[in-house]
Design a protein that fits this description.
Immunoglobulin-like; 5-stranded antiparallel beta sheet; 155 residues; globular; alpha+beta
Length: 155
């Protein structure tokens, strides 16, 4: 009886570990990293469920450097969203900004629909990209997410 209880506890612990690892793996799959002109940039999709909904798309962004001051940039003017069809959309806003100088953190908000009120990201799109233009003297850097996101259901 005691061995059976220990066996059940062991199975529960293994299942719990698998769930935690898969959640961490999914969160990591939502983040992209690159060095852009001496600036380390991390961009993460905040609300993966909004990708196909037509709702505004929100990405967190962290910019870190020791070579240039980031205060010289209007952050929301650096970031663009591009869909598979090549349509490009400027960030609407840089929200909840934190830091300054060499470290900037916040959320980038992009429109979810085009002028015709169609979702920017369609169900059959294979990827979405965030572009960074003009940061650290680099013309353009691309951060790409393959779609659907890690097992995400397409409506």
């Amino acid at each position: 009886m005691r061995n059976c209880a220990l066996f059940i506890i062991a199975i529960i612990l293994v299942l719990f570990s698998v769930i935690l690892v898969s959640q961490d793996s999914f969160a990591e799959s939502l983040t992209r990293h690159s060095s852009v002109g001496g600036v380390e940039v991390d961009i993460s999709i905040i609300e993966p469920g909004a990708i196909y909904s037509g709702d505004e798309l929100i990405f967190s962004a962290a910019l870190n450097t020791h070579s240039v001051s980031l205060n010289q940039y209007v952050i929301e003017e650096l970031f663009y969203l591009r869909n598979e069809r090549g349509a490009v959309f400027k960030a609407l806003a840089w929200e909840s900004p934190k830091g300054g100088g060499h470290h900037r953190f916040g959320n980038l908000r992009f429109q979810g629909e085009d002028r015709d009120e169609m979702p920017i990201i369609l169900n059959d799109d294979k990827y979405v990209e965030v572009l960074v233009k003009g940061l650290g003297g680099v013309k353009e850097s691309v951060f790409r997410w393959e779609l659907p996101l890690n097992g995400q259901n397409v409506r």
